[in-house]
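The instructor's notes for this session suggest beginning with a concrete chain rather than abstract definitions. Hand out the sequence below and ask the class to guess, before any prediction is shown, which regions might be ordered.
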Amino acid sequence: MQLKRLRPDMAFDNIYTITPEVLAELGVGGVVFDIDNTIAPYEVEIPTDRMREYFDSLSKAGIKMAFVSNNKGPRVMRFNEGLGLFYVCKAGKPSPKGVRKCIAHFGLGTGEVLAVGDQIFTDCLAAHRAGIRFAMVKPIQKQESAFFRLKRFMERPFVRGLEWLSAKEAVQRLKARRKKKNDGGTK
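After discussion, reveal the predicted structure:
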């Protein structure tokens, strides 16, 4: 396996810093979200008002959205009630199959789709295996089972040195990169 598949393309404090403006700068027309510990803590069954407002802002900006979760159907269906987004449950991440289903549903090219999640060995790997970029967010809950604590420990080398960007910082950096590319890298 190529180790670069385990390295996020970008990192954000939380989903709310991945604004429609950031997505526009990235050329993203579709976002594949993990649910548990990315959008909501495990015990939150339905989206909060803040979550609904966030998804509404993406929708109003023309961003297509979907959920890919390793969790069971009832959890994902309950969370998606009222949102009506495309979803894949029991996805078997790091398998890319669920992510690929979302890309096909969107009808977009892989360069136009971004995956967002909190784990390297499931979310990041599934995204990269499907050929799309991955944005990592900090996990919502710090207190996890022994299994997840071990996974987080094993993820450290892959997230070490990542800069956790605010929306403003991300847009500034993307604009600077785009300007440099358009200038041909010359002074």
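Then share the key points. Residues 176 and 182 are 10 Å apart (CA to CA). The chain is about 40% helix and 15% strand.
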